[in-house]
Design brief:
The chain is of the alpha+beta class. It has two domains: about 5-90, Phosphorylase Kinase, domain 1, CATH 3.30.200.20; about 100-350, Aminoglycoside 3'-phosphotransferase, Chain: A, domain 2 (Alpha-Beta Complex). The protein contains nine helices and ten strands.
Length: about 350
């Protein structure tokens, strides 16, 4: 089924549930979204497996997740050509044209609520899909440009098994040689409340972790996790209500809950997220009882490896997008690639120090 035929089929599904002709909405390249009145119809990425998606749809409709994850219009997983299709209520997304109004505290509280739901209370779920997304994104790169090589080198430095179904980033915080990891930019942002003494925007300094590798603050907290959280994964709940709610269950599962904080942590450490925004987010998450990081003290024992992995994923996606569009990297993309180089330099230095 070519793209036009697929879109026509999505519109027919939308008309069935929404009652009006559908309009294609902008989204990432591997997904197609059609809005039809009060519903949106989603064609999932090519190659998505039916059974894991069926399990995730079943879990999302469970009462334990009501008010946290958007409930589907129907639990049925349909097909259009070779694509899996699901139908959801249409919500109002975060306004990307007004970044100052981004609901960081509301997002943190939602994630804390999600993480508090016992996975065993839900229908069975598989491993969260987020960590395997890193390997898949890097695999789409070539190896011809300096930027591609930098991202690939950083990926090989990450101290976690990269194949799907293995331990996610953060489960081996000491790395292959037992050294304490650094932040995504090759630094070690530390402080009693997650602050970064000595600088901001990731240009920070600090000593080694106060806890030993594998200690309580560096051990992953495994539980229910969204798997691919960012601001685009939140909408205002349909029906005129003001509450924010999580969407997109493609990576929902059991895994390292720090993964859900890894994107803002990576942006902060790379200097792309204002420190005060990061502190607001982290503080709200902790105040709501979030379990991905300790309730106080240094959060980076749990966050650093997931954040480094997310830095590599973001850089890989950026380099791939620039290549597709035939353009040079923009300023933000350059920062992400430079962060990958710092990961390489830091890990090479750590792992080459002779032991006594």
């Amino acid at each position: 089924m070519d793209s036009e035929d697929l879109i026509d089929e999505l519109r027919r599904i939308g008309a069935r549930y929404g009652g009006v002709p559908g309009t294609v909405l902008p989204t990432r390249p591997d997904v197609i979204i059609v809005r039809a009145g009060s519903v949106v119809v989603k064609a999932h990425a090519p190659g998505a497996e039916r059974e894991p998606l069926v399990e995730r749809m079943r879990a999302t409709a469970h009462p334990a997740l009501r008010g946290i994850l958007l409930e589907p219009v129907t639990e049925e997983v349909m097909t259009a050509g070779d694509r899996l299709v699901t139908v959801w209520p249409a919500g109002t997304p975060v306004d990307h044209a007004d970044p100052d109004a981004a609901p960081w505290e509301a997002a943190a509280r939602l994630l804390a609520r999600l993480h508090a739901v016992p996975a065993q209370a839900l229908p069975p779920l598989r491993a969260a899909g987020g960590p395997s997304r890193v390997a898949a994104t890097v695999a789409r790169l070539g190896d011809r440009s300096a930027a591609e090589l930098a991202v690939r080198r950083a990926f090989t430095c990450l101290p976690f098994p990269a194949s799907p179904g293995t331990s996610p980033p953060g489960t081996n915080p000491g790395g292959p040689s037992g050294t304490a990891p650094s932040g995504p930019s090759g630094t070690n942002p530390r402080g009693s409340s997650g602050t970064a003494p000595g600088g901001s925007h990731g240009t920070v300094s600090g000593g080694s972790h106060s806890t030993s590798p594998g200690g309580s603050s560096g051990t992953a907290h495994v539980g229910l996790t969204h798997g691919d959280w960012h601001m685009g994964q939140m909408v205002r709940a349909p029906g005129g209500r003001a509450e924010w709610i999580l969407i997109d269950i493609d990576d929902l599962g059991v895994g390292d809950q720090a993964w859900d904080l890894s994107r803002p942590a990576a942006w902060f450490a790379a200097g792309l997220l204002e420190p005060q925004v990061w502190y607001r987010f982290l503080g709200a998450y902790r105040a709501a009882g979030g379990t991905a990081v300790p309730p106080d003290g240094d959060p980076w024992g749990r966050l650093e490896i997931p954040a480094q992995a997310m830095t590599v994923q973001l850089a890989a996606a950026a380099v791939a997008a620039a290549g597709r569009e035939g353009r040079p990297l923009d300023e933000v993309e350059e920062v992400l690639v430079e962060s990958c180089l710092r990961i390489v330099r830091h890990r090479s230095a750590c792992h080459s120090v002779p032991t006594q």
